[in-house]
Design goal:
With 676 residues, the chain is mostly beta strands. Helices cover 6% and strands 58% of the residues.
């Protein structure tokens, strides 16, 4: 009841003060980078959302979940601290952990490997200053992915920051972020250390990270960029529980059975050391013609003591991207063309041993996988009289992998998937200032990742084929005066050969193609400006509401004698509703009050087990203290304000009904962010 009273008060406050304009940039005038294809948000043909500084400030030190989950159509899940998934319009169907079927870039550089897997959890949230989330296939710009694309951006202006925080369950976090312009060089050095014991047993996390970049503008027409990322992530994995086990003790790790040891006994966890380095060059040959090229490489040392085995994985990755850009202006009509290529190679050597209580035992299987993928792309953007905007693209995508069994038996082979032409076309019409309608149609394709081809059951799933589908959507964006922005989108994605996860009796995963899916949905956003209320008590106020309303169904999906056609898509909630209210009191004290509602979720393909719906509240208090040129931003975060029993990431289709990974109860973070 108190929450209802607060919402009524907020609504009344908004109405009373809605006539008072503020001078900040209109929401409709936000610029989208779209990987060097900038456009205004209101004119963009893409289904894109921007995670702003205000949303990023809602995150606790360890994760980006709170900000991502404020985006309609995006959902970040935490199976246990350190283990995250990102779903764009239901793409977690095939992700037991990590990020698959979503392409991720870090500034200019490619964070996803050639097979489509992304170690998203190696990135410190405090490194990121902005995100652009593209929902649905964007094959003409970013290649094969049916879920979408995420662009992460780091610091672009001079700043010297230091963060220090402590919290519940032994949480400690510190980071230093220094960026400076030295003549023609823009440098950034970022360092972070984070640790926590976490809520559940066997779920401690430790992360160390260093990030260095240099943007060298060596002439007015050319810029050279270099980057290196060093990350060392070590997190324990408590494992999934049955409903009865969770109700008995939410904090326990997966217990042992008569035949299988428990997670704590086996010291289950993941240790991921990664180095990523790259260099890019952009050169304006003529005022209308420019060239861009990127070369990068990475090395991953991945160690995973699991309940049934101990896995060591060594990965080397190489990638290149290059494109020519040409633009022309004929008065009321302007056009841009892009012609390019992006490709990568991913080599994995994986060794599985017996797990003797967290120590490598006798060898089980040694295998190698080499994945090569790439796409040629061409695109055209048209701007007709600042009224009609179009974005057309076509890509030719290629993917093949070579596999080799080394121990105990020897065998090898090669699988090449059929090349795919993937077109995309979008159109936006600007009806008036701050008012646009748009339509889009595109085809997406996503090949199996290396972790799906050779999954934790230590077998090669050679029958897996890429999933593909057509996406059609329409949308409307409307700015109401200078104070309110609204957006609504409807999409219809028809997938074929959708890849889904299975588990065997030992808890090991494998993947199958499921036939097809029909994914229809509506996504909405309502966001206000930051109202200056000209009041010494309640000085400023801003609100944001977003929601996703989905009807996702399996189609022509049969496993053995069981027909799952018509069932709801596993792991995807029908409805999510999110809100964020920002208050400023006494021109100093900021209060951020957020909510996340999630409806019931089907946990298996048969739809015989569902999660409970839940609503989670968070609150944050921020207060700045200034000493000459130094500002200390003190903050307190209360996560899970109402102390709700809930799960933030389920193990879908889990053998033995071990679906549940309980999330932390009410917890606190206290900290200071120092801006020098």
């Amino acid at each position: 009841m108190n929450k209802i009273y607060l919402l009524i008060f907020t609504f009344c406050t908004t109405i009373i003060f809605s006539q008072k304009r503020d001078s900040a940039t209109l929401i409709s005038e936000v610029r989208i980078d779209a990987y060097k294809k900038p456009t205004s948000f209101i004119a963009s043909t893409k289904s894109v959302s921007v995670v702003s500084e205000n949303l990023l400030s809602q995150n606790p030190p360890e994760r980006l979940l709170e900000s991502v989950n404020q985006i309609a159509g995006a959902r970040m899940e935490e199976r246990s601290p350190g283990s995250y998934r990102i779903s764009l319009r239901g793409s977690t169907l095939r992700s037991p952990f990590g990020v698959r079927n979503v392409k991720v870039y870090l500034d200019d550089f490619i964070l996803s490997d050639a097979s489509g897997n992304t170690y998203f959890n190696v990135i410190s949230p405090e490194l990121i200053t902005r995100m652009e989330i593209f929902k649905g296939p964007e094959s003409g710009d970013f290649g094969a992915a049916t879920g979408g694309t995420v662009l992460l951006q780091t610091q672009s202006s001079e700043q010297t920051l230091a963060n220090l925080s402590v919290g519940s369950y032994g949480t400690f976090n510190e980071s230093v972020n220094f960026s400076k312009q030295f003549r023609k060089h823009f440098f950034q050095i970022f360092q972070n250390y984070y640790r926590t014991d976490s809520y559940r047993k066997q779920s401690a996390v430790e992360r160390k990270q260093i990030f260095i970049k240099d943007n060298f503008q060596y002439s007015k027409n050319a810029e050279l960029k270099a980057m290196i990322l060093l990350s060392d992530l070590d997190y324990q994995t408590p494992g999934g529980l049955t409903l009865e086990q969770m109700q008995l003790d939410r904090r326990q790790a997966r217990p042992k059975t008569a035949t299988v040891p428990g997670a704590k006994q086996q010291d289950a966890g993941i240790r991921n050391k990664m180095i990523l380095a790259g260099i890019s060059h952009e050169f304006k040959i003529l005022p209308e013609l420019s060239h861009y090229v990127l070369v990068q490489g990475s090395y991953v040392d991945f160690e995973n003591p699991f309940i049934t085995n101990f896995e060591n994985r060594f990965e080397t990755n190489y990638a290149v991207r290059s494109h020519l850009n040409y633009n022309q202006n004929w008065g009321k009509v302007s056009a841009e063309w892009r012609l390019g290529f992006e490709g990568g190679m991913n080599n994995i050597f994986v060794k599985n041993f017996d797990n003797n209580k967290g120590v490598e035992g006798n060898p089980q299987n040694f295998d190698k996988v080499k994945n090569n993928s790439g796409f040629f792309f061409v695109s055209q953007k048209l701007n007709i009289n600042e009224k009609l905007f179009s974005d057309s693209s076509l890509s030719l995508n290629s993917n093949f992998y070579e596999w080799e069994k080394i121990f105990p038996a020897t065998e090898n082979g090669k699988t090449k998937f059929k090349d795919q032409f993937l077109p995309n076309f979008g159109l936006t019409y600007l009806i008036g200032k701050g008012f646009s309608v748009r339509g889009k149609v595109g085809k997406g394709n996503s090949a199996p990742t290396n972790e799906e081809i050779r999954s934790s059951n230590q077998e090669f799933n050679l029958n897996l084929v890429p999933e593909y589908g057509w996406n059609k959507e329409i949308g409307i964006r409307k700015q109401f005066g200078a104070f309110l922005f609204a957006e609504a989108s409807y999409f219809d994605l028809r997938m074929k050969d959708a890849i889904v996860r299975r588990q065997n009796e030992r808890g090991q995963e494998f993947f199958v193609n499921s036939g097809g899916t029909v994914q229809k949905g509506i996504e909405v956003l309502l966001e206000s400006k930051n109202f200056n209320l000209k009041n010494d008590f309640l000085s400023n106020f801003k609100f944001r509401f977003s929601g996703s309303f989905y009807q996702f169904k399996f189609q022509n999906y049969q496993q053995g004698a069981t027909d799952f056609s018509g069932n709801d898509l596993t792991g995807v909630p029908k409805n999510t509703i999110n809100s964020l209210l920002n208050f400023t009191f006494f021109n100093k004290l900021s209060v951020d009050y957020s909510h996340f509602y999630t409806s019931e979720i089907p946990l298996n393909d048969a739809n015989t087990v569902w999660s409970d719906a839940n609503i989670i509240g968070n609150i944050q208090f921020r207060y700045p203290v200034q000493f000459e040129n130094t500002i200390l931003n003190l903050f307190v975060q209360i996560q899970n304000l109402y102390n709700t029993d809930y799960v933030l990431g389920f193990d879908i289709n889990a053998f033995g009904n071990r679906y549940y990974n309980p999330a932390a109860k009410r917890n606190f973070v206290f900290g200071v962010k120092v801006n020098f």
